[in-house]
Design goal:
By secondary structure, the protein is an alpha/beta fold. It is built from 17 helices and 14 strands. The strands form four sheets. Strands 1, 2, 3, 6, 11, 12 and 13 form a seven-stranded mixed β-sheet that branches. The protein has a three-stranded mixed β-sheet with strand order 8-9-14, with helices on one face. A two-stranded antiparallel ribbon has the order 4-5. The radius of gyration is 22 Å and the shape is globular. The N terminus is likely disordered. InterPro entries: Bact_solute-bd_prot1, SBP. Pfam families: SBP_bac_1 (PF01547).
């Protein structure tokens, strides 16, 4: 699940190599050695080992109850320490202080490496993680692994697709959704020339989307292996990155797409009112949009979804936006118990079924993804379209995983600033790619990395 807000410049940035030794261990007392008592949920078995969990899934109360009712030797003590970046900031503070971290923490996949490099997360391979590897696609497993080490249990993902307004497409004579980004641009111009709304949005506050589209085009922004902490390859001034930023910059300049920050009240009002013909998003989007009031009034039944347009239809690439996992922190007082929770929480059939039916998550567990119930489900938001079978499950199974940097927060903040400059006409996509590359390389060097 992607925590859907913009980045904040006030979020502390991990000083990666400088903090590499700040993780706790069994000898430092841990952050949660005392039995946690400040639990949001009910403890079913009072004498059992308690594991403190930070997580923000909307249905966590039900998920935790499911786990606690099914286990007599370990109980989850759950609290919501913040959604996304606020939680990460608290976790970073606990890492630096060597105390105060939970036993298990919910993290988005693109944030894992930044904590792994600080020795803040436990390798789950010795605790049976590979026993569940068969339950996930290769891409989902790659996102939580480093070589033979497994640093989290994947829960949900965000295979990307193209949500579109069927009423706008029909009004302006677009008979089929665009299959390529060239077709997308042509359709955008057709609608605009006919006096229609903008076709999409190039919001600066969703840099993860732009990064995914760069990867789809063939870019490899980062090459990094935790086994070689000192070295990193950064390539943000390559032709693929330049092409993607130029593409969206040109659409923005021509007024074919909007420039608004996403997930704001105005943006949601625009979605409801037909201001945007399409929404480039992920499998969790229907749940988010429904929760925000989209598709419930005059716009009900007017949304559909199609596969994400491709840069090259002969070489289709599936990409991901968001997705979260449960990791065991190095401050956990009982790592075996914490690992049982990380690997077993939100892994039972009841929790997974509730997650996808309420559109809280898009599950990564293949047992659920292959079920007839999920595959044949007719999604009301998409007017009965069988989107799991036709769009999202194939996209997830085709996803090959990504390589993230140890400083995702800083990278996203700089990309966000460059997109804002593009939208304001103060730079070109090509120049933005070059400047972004230089900024990130310089930052990596100041953190002690050798950059290739």
């Amino acid at each position: 699940m992607r925590f859907k807000t913009g980045l904040s410049a006030t979020i502390p940035v991990v000083l990666a190599l400088g903090l590499a030794a700040c993780g706790g261990d069994d000898s430092d007392g841990g952050g949660t050695a005392a039995k946690p008592t400040n639990c949001t949920n009910k403890i079913v078995h009072e004498d059992a080992k308690r594991v403190l969990v930070w997580a923000w899934y909307p249905n966590m109360a039900k998920v935790v109850d499911n786990f606690n009712n099914q286990n007599t030797d370990v109980q989850v003590c759950w609290t919501n320490a913040g959604q996304g970046q606020p939680e990460y900031a608290k976790f970073q503070t606990a890492i630096s202080a060597k105390k105060g971290a939970p036993d298990v923490v919910m993290l988005e996949a693109d944030q894992l490496v930044g904590f792994e490099i600080q020795d803040a997360l436990v390798d789950l391979a010795p605790y049976g993680a590979n026993d569940i590897k068969k339950n996930f696609s290769a891409g989902a497993w790659k996102d939580v692994s480093q070589g033979d080490k497994v640093f989290a249990a994947p829960i949900d993902g965000g295979p990307m697709a193209l949500i579109y307004r069927t009423d706008i497409f029909a009004k302006y004579g677009i008979k089929t959704p665009p299959k390529t980004w060239d077709e997308y641009a042509a359709d955008a111009k057709k609608v605009k020339d006919a006096g229609g709304p903008v076709f999409g949005d190039f919001g600066s506050n969703v840099p993860a989307v732009t990064t995914a589209l760069m990867i789809q085009k063939g870019a490899r922004p980062f090459v990094y292996d935790l086994a070689d902490k000192q070295n990193i390859t950064i390539k943000l001034d390559d032709q693929a990155t330049k092409d993607v930023l130029e593409y969206w910059g040109n659409l923005s300049k021509q007024g074919l797409v909007g420039k608004e920050d996403q997930f704001t009240t105005d943006y949601i009002a625009g979605m409801v009112g037909g201001k945007y013909a399409t929404y480039v998003s992920a499998a969790w989007a229907p749940g988010y949009l429904t929760g925000a009031g989209v598709g419930a009034g005059k716009d009900k039944g007017k949304f559909a979804v199609a596969p994400l347009p491709q840069w090259d239809v002969t070489n289709p690439v599936s990409v991901n936006w968001g997705g979260s996992a449960f990791a065991v922190t190095s401050q956990a007082s009982d790592k075996a118990a914490a690992a049982k929770v990380a690997l077993g929480l939100y892994a039972d059939d009841a929790s997974l079924t509730d997650g996808w039916k309420t559109q809280t998550i898009f599950p990564l567990n293949q047992g659920v993804l292959k079920s007839d119930e999920l595959l044949n489900a007719k999604i009301d938001f998409f007017n009965g379209q069988t989107v799991n079978k036709d769009i999202y499950v194939p996209a997830e199974n085709a996803y090959q995983g990504a390589v993230y940097s140890p400083f995702t927060v800083y990278y996203y903040a700089q990309l966000q600033a460059q997109i804002a400059k593009i939208n304001n006409g103060r730079t070109t996509g090509t120049q933005a790619a070059t400047d972004l590359h230089n900024q990130i390389v310089q930052y990596a060097k100041t953190q002690g990395f050798t950059v290739h």
